[in-house]
Write a structure and sequence with these properties.
heterotrimer; A mainly alpha (259); B alpha/beta (171); C alpha+beta (353); A: 259 residues; mainly alpha; MetI-like fold; B: 171 residues; alpha/beta; five-stranded mixed sheet; 6 helices; 35% helix
Chain lengths: 259, 171, 353
């Protein structure tokens, strides 16, 4: 069954690779539109990953360590974008940050316009990628347990010291993989961006949107760009997993046993 | 049978000898300006779309409605600075109905379908970029009689009436 | 009394009142679920009791008056209590080296990095683990890790050291080594050690309390409590064979002239007072003397047979052996019968008393 599972993922990729027009590959992926889209994708994905870390770390801490009413409800809502079709997320964002939206009206008064801007792309990507960071980090926090933290406190470490010297280093592998997943998800984001941000070269047209558009007229370009996106994703995920693997082994040496 | 929203795709099929006989045009469609019902940017003409601060959404030039928008711009000598170039006309319409955009270039049929969610502003310049819809029977069809009957219905008076009601023009 | 605590945790049926003198080590014995770990958590500040008061050397750890009594609640956070905890598992921070683990307490107290490292090295030397300084916890054996954990707890300079079954997770070879280490470092130190091993109480504690169902059922100097157990739990514990006598080159000679050879890691000075300890489960019963093996074998007369769990405990004066009911029947063991108790030297621990 494992082989079937692997094939199920690999076969469509192989089929796509087989469709690539290799003599034209380089010109296709190095066209101005393609490079602009790739650059925009990398920049926005990096920005939204940063935003995910800033928002997701406190959220994961509260979910893993806090004990309060409505906690499981909060978790369900935070994870909602995982199961929502991205276009639904885009519509929700539109009604929040859009011109006629909940916050958009006040923002517009303050002179901030989010619709059709690169900011909108980053918001859309953050919305769909945040759960990946929260889930990974909360899992790491839970499996690390609070016993190290309690013990550190008895050794005289104040809560901020415990967070800095014990909690964060212990969950670093989980944070790393969560960050990578968020980045990868941001990179692949399409539906929410299309709905919420629009599509304009250099501003909001990320690589997935460029692929979708090229598909209309130039199937070869769409396939070539798809391969480029796959390559970037594989490189990002591969690199960070290789780097975080030793830390993961070290991290699991201690807390594996016990109550 | 095969019906297309532009002649380009039909030409591809004809070129590859995939259709029976020559295609027949059954409808035309032209662009118009769609604005939110309140028309916040007070759009009254195509030239208004080029005013600074007006958020216009059009189709990307890769798709037929975008190609038509390019033609209109070229013919009128007015160049737009769109905030977004969508890959489908429904996405353009969506940006207008949600109020994100001040105006969008869509087909007259789209404004008709959208009901009171958008208002159409006449666009005389669009006469220079009429989209013609051709229809033809596919050569390999196993139901040649049925497809011929359908094409006759679409191009006949009954089909014409339905199409006109939906906002299409006569070929 | 320089440490004094009264505390109640209603949800766990826990109500305890105890005191501890300067330099005194208290052993807490009791069955699982008796509230021993709750006791440590309350002292360490990891669990907030409903009511009670605790202070150490005049510092308030908590002061939580009952609703009927007036007064404002006082609460000292765990990191300000000076109650370092040594748990059953070493819980060394996996991302820090052994040295950095030991330096964690001093660093948290604001000691500069260099001085903290030097202090950590001294404590590692104290537990014979200097050579492990640069190792990661993942590269240490269970016994080594627990030794480093001891150094880490001591380096924090606690006013009260809390030990929660520190030997329980160690194998039978590592446990005696750590026990002797603890005997050395706990001497003259104020500590509370939770244990289920009566040998720990004998070896490490000045006083012992026995807890059952969240309350203290027995309390007193260790030897006294275990000599005349009143609680059923203490009576069960008292089964450990302890033979006092004078040291020989290889073991202990009892007053009756019986020789016990056993394991010891400090050189024995012949003539010095010492004790040999071994559990009844390590004692085999034979009808005739066994020859040719390095085992302790001595003739005894059975005084009593009693059931002990699913075993039969054979008593012969001060000594006892556990055998299966089947073996007891096969051998025809009855009070008055002369038999040989045999125990392997590996199962006997020899301590200078």
């Amino acid at each position: 069954m494992a082989a079937v599972g692997a094939l199920f993922v690999l076969l469509p990729l192989a089929a796509m690779v087989a469709k690539v027009n290799w003599p034209q590959f380089l010109p296709l992926v190095t066209s101005e539109a393609s490079l602009t889209a790739l650059g925009l994708s990398l920049r926005t994905a990096a920005a939204s990953t940063l935003l995910c870390v800033l928002l997701g770390v406190p959220l994961a801490l509260v979910l893993a360590r806090g004990r309060f009413r409505g906690q499981s409800l909060l978790r369900s809502f935070v994870l909602l974008p995982l199961v929502l079709p991205p276009v639904v997320g885009g519509i929700a964002l539109l009604y929040t940050f859009g011109r006629q939206g909940l916050l958009g009206r006040s923002l517009e008064v303050a002179g901030i316009q989010i619709a059709f801007s690169t900011t909108a792309v980053v918001l859309a990507q953050t919305f769909v990628a945040l759960p990946f960071l929260v889930v990974s980090l909360e899992g790491a926090l839970r499996s690390a347990g609070s016993r190290y933290e309690a013990l550190a406190a008895t050794l005289g470490a104040r809560p901020t010291t415990v967070l800095r010297r014990v909690t964060v280093p212990l969950v670093l592998p989980g944070l790393a993989s969560g960050t990578v997943l968020s980045f990868a998800r941001s990179l692949g984001e399409f539906g929410a961006t299309l709905t919420f941000a629009g599509s304009l070269q250099g501003v909001t047209r990320t690589l997935p949107l460029e692929i979708y558009l090229q598909r209309e007229t130039d199937a070869d370009a769409a396939v070539a760009l798809s391969l480029l996106l796959v390559a970037v994703a594989v490189i990002v995920v591969g690199l960070s997993y290789r780097r975080s693997a030793p830390a993961r082994i070290r991290g699991s040496a201690g807390p594996g046993t016990g109550a | 049978m095969f019906a297309s929203a532009d002649t380009k795709n039909m030409a591809k099929l004809s070129g590859a000898s995939l259709i029976e006989g020559s295609p027949r045009d059954f409808a035309t469609n032209v662009l118009t300006i769609a604005v939110p019902p309140a028309n916040p940017a007070s759009i009254g003409s195509f030239a208004d779309l080029a005013k600074p601060g007006v958020k216009v959404v059009i189709c990307a030039s890769q798709v037929p409605c975008g190609a038509a928008a390019q033609t209109v711009q070229k013919a009128s000598g007015i160049t737009l600075q769109p905030v977004s170039e969508e890959s489908s006309v429904t996405d353009v319409l969506g940006k207008v109905t949600s109020g994100e955009a001040d105006a969008g270039l869509v087909y007259v049929t789209d404004v008709k379908t959208a009901g009171d969610k958008v208002r159409g502003i006449p666009l005389p310049e669009s006469a220079r970029a009429v989209n013609t819809y051709p229809i033809a029977a596919v050569r390999t069809s196993r139901n040649k009689d049925l497809s011929a009957a359908f094409i006759a219905a679409v191009t006949g008076s009954e089909g014409r009436k339905v199409l006109l009601d939906a906002g299409f023009g006569a070929p | 009394m320089t440490f004094r605590m009264d505390a109640a945790v209603a949800a766990r049926g826990f109500e305890v009142s105890l005191g501890l003198g300067a330099g005194e080590t208290l052993a807490v014995l009791g069955p699982n679920g008796a509230g021993k770990s709750t006791l440590l958590a309350v002292v360490a500040g990891l669990l907030r009791p409903d009511t009670g008061r605790a202070e150490v050397d005049g510092r308030i750890l908590f002061d939580l008056p009952s609703a009927s009594r007036n007064g404002t609640a006082g609460w000292t956070a765990p990191h300000r209590r000076g109650t370092a905890l040594l748990a059953q598992e070493p819980l060394l921070f996996p991302h820090l080296s052994a040295l950095e683990n030991v330096a964690f307490g001093p660093r948290s107290a604001g000691v500069p990095k260099r001085a903290a490292r030097e202090a950590a090295l001294r404590w590692l030397a104290e537990v014979d683990a200097e050579d492990l300084a640069s190792r990661r916890p993942g590269e240490l054996s269970g016994g080594q890790a627990q030794r480093v954990a001891v150094a880490r707890a001591l380096a924090a300079g606690p006013d009260v050291l809390l030990l929660d079954e520190p030997m329980a997770a160690l194998d039978i070879h590592a446990a005696p080594l750590l026990r002797r280490l603890l005997k050395r470092v706990l001497a003259g130190r104020r500590a509370i050690i939770v244990t289920h091993d009566v040998l720990d109480a004998y070896m490490l504690a000045d006083r012992v309390i026995v807890m059952e169902d969240g309350r203290i059922t027995e309390e007193g100097p260790t030897r006294e409590v275990l000599r005349r157990p009143r609680s059923s739990f203490a009576a069960g514990l008292a089964g450990l064979n302890l033979v006092t006598g004078s040291a020989t080159a290889a073991g202990i000679r009892s007053a009756e002239g019986l020789e016990f050879t056993g394991q010891h890691d400090v050189p024995l000075i012949p003539g010095q007072a010492g004790v040999a300890a071994f559990p009844p489960s390590a004692v085999s019963v034979f009808l005739s003397e066994a020859h040719g093996s390095p085992r302790n074998s001595f003739p005894v007369t059975i005084t009593d047979l009693e059931s002990h769990g699913d075993q039969i405990r054979i008593r012969a004066g001060e000594l006892s052996a556990d055998v299966t009911p089947a073996a007891s029947g096969d051998l025809g063991l009855v009070p008055g019968l002369g038999v040989y108790f045999v125990v392997k030297a590996a199962a006997v621990s020899i301590y200078p008393a």
